[in-house]
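pls design
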């Protein structure tokens, strides 16, 4: 009886192990997501998008990385601009990202209301209008609030440099901005959300990609949706979000094509 019981237990164990193996082997044989595939899927997802601010970034990616699918982004942006008269002033303001000679009406700048947008618009036009005398105070205030306020400070600094504008800042201020953005990304590199994608992408834009943990890049690739998008997983349950997808693609394009320098992201800086 004891022998039969032992044989039964052994048989049950073998069956369980075999079933586990049958489940595990197909999973192991599935191809792991890779960088190039993730980029291709994101390009496919964004190719037909008409969200105006997405189109500005698509034009940046076309000029910086030669993404042929985004070659008509400026033309599409201008079409959308005419279709949205209520947003026309704000859209004309940010159009300068992709057109140095961007026409701007006197009242257009009055449409910029958010403090985090105001600081980047000052940077966007600093070669035309100069910077406010208290610009550092504005940057410092925004940086101290963290989150998207902080990431916009980093973007503003990038644009100030690309436009060749003079800005005197206290020693260590920009290094602190870099470190604080990296802290957003690396606080938990196993999670991906829109804010982390923005901080990581802007660090790469600033030439500070080494501050982004490699495990975060891996997690970005793994967390991509099947349709090529990323979602805004921290603030909502939106599964496909154009903003997160723009940032995810921008980040991965820099990872795929590392370089000591890139073509400027602002058209104003390339002329």
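designed seq:
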């Amino acid at each position: 009886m004891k022998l039969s019981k032992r044989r039964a237990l052994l048989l049950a164990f073998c069956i369980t192990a075999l079933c586990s193996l049958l489940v595990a082997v197909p999973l192991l044989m599935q191809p792991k997501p890779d960088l190039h595939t993730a980029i291709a899927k994101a390009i496919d997802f964004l190719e037909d998008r008409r969200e105006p601010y997405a189109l500005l970034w698509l034009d940046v990616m076309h000029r910086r990385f030669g993404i042929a699918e985004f070659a008509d982004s400026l033309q599409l942006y201008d079409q959308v601009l005419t279709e949205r008269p209520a947003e026309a002033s704000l859209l004309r303001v940010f159009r300068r990202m992709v057109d140095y000679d961007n026409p701007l009406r006197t009242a257009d700048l009055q449409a910029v209301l958010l403090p985090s947008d105001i600081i980047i618009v000052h940077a966007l036009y600093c070669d035309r209008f100069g910077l406010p005398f208290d610009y550092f105070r504005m940057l410092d205030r925004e940086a101290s609030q963290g989150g998207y306020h902080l990431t916009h400070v980093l973007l503003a600094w990038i644009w100030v440099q690309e436009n060749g504008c003079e800005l005197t800042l206290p020693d260590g201020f920009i290094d602190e901005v870099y470190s604080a953005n990296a802290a957003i990304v690396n606080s938990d590199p196993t999670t991906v959300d829109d804010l982390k994608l923005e901080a990581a992408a802007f660090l790469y834009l600033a030439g500070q990609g080494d501050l982004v943990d490699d495990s975060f890049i891996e997690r970005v690739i793994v967390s991509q949706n099947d349709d090529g998008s990323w979602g805004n997983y921290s603030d909502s349950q939106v599964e496909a979000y154009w903003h997160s997808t723009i940032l995810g693609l921008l980040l991965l394009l820099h990872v795929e094509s590392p370089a000591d320098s890139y073509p400027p992201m602002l058209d104003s800086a390339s002329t």
